[in-house]
Amino acid sequence: MEEKFDPLIAEWISFVKNPNFNLVEKCLKFAQITEYPDLDVEEYIKKINLIGKSLKESISDIKNPTYLISMLNEHLFENLGFSGDDDDYYNPKNNFLNEVIDKKIGLPITISILYVEIAKFIGLELKIVGFPSHVLVKYNEEMILDPFYDGRLLDVDDLQDILDTNFGGQLEFKPEFLDEVTSEQILVRLTRNLKNSYLQSFAYEKALRCINMVLTMNPESPEDIRDKGILEERLLNFEIALRYLNKYLEINPNADDVDFILELIRSIKTKN
Questions:
Q1: pLDDT in tens, 58-83
Q2: DSSP state letter for 265
Q3: I need a surface site. Which of 32, 33, 141, 232 has the fewest CB within 10 A?
Q4: Cα–Cα distances in angstroms (integers) from residue 267 to residues 61, 238, 247, 271, 272, in the given order
Q5: Distance between CA atoms of 42 and 91, rounded to whole angstroms?
Q6: DSSP state at residue 74
């Protein structure tokens, strides 16, 4: 059984690989391809520009980064009312930059993308940090910010608290958790987030498209190869499911979930 060609995924990967588009444009394209076919990317670029220009007009000529960050926080979170969505965290809409701009709530990753983009209007070069389970932003190694919680400044204890909350005390803080991530890594993480949101609501076809989007960017990713196999099985595409589940075991023969995957392979073979 051959996999069907998806023209939207082909369009997506050509967009991702194109250096002429910045991260914000790629995030809006992501929304257009996955959920909002009529989305006007240019309209949302204009909305971001308006936010950035109104911030620029409100500040003095002081170039002190602490002052600039405090003004950025005041503008985005106090004046405009942006915030992290603690109440409905797994809502798929929180992964889309157009929804974040319209509704003013989002995930750590989407709020951080917007935060870094608006900072550029006042000459602040902030970096997105791929912190486990909770994307953050940094100005330098000493200034780590959490746009999900109104741009608050974090110390090492705060960082460990985030890890303890999300990993049940099983993960110790390491300095490399604060490494900057590339645009492509951010897009992979965003796509996986959306996949998880779709899985929560049993939208398997949409979740599968997300996995296929990740695999075009990161074709040897064990996690996504495994998840594709599991989803194809749920969608009754048994031949494709077997191919990916077997590939997962080849790549990752000592994985924690080997028994589960072997059992799934056995059950597929009995159905065929």
A1: 887 778 899 999 999 999 999 999 99
A2: H
A3: 141
A4: 67, 10, 17, 6, 9
A5: 25
A6: I
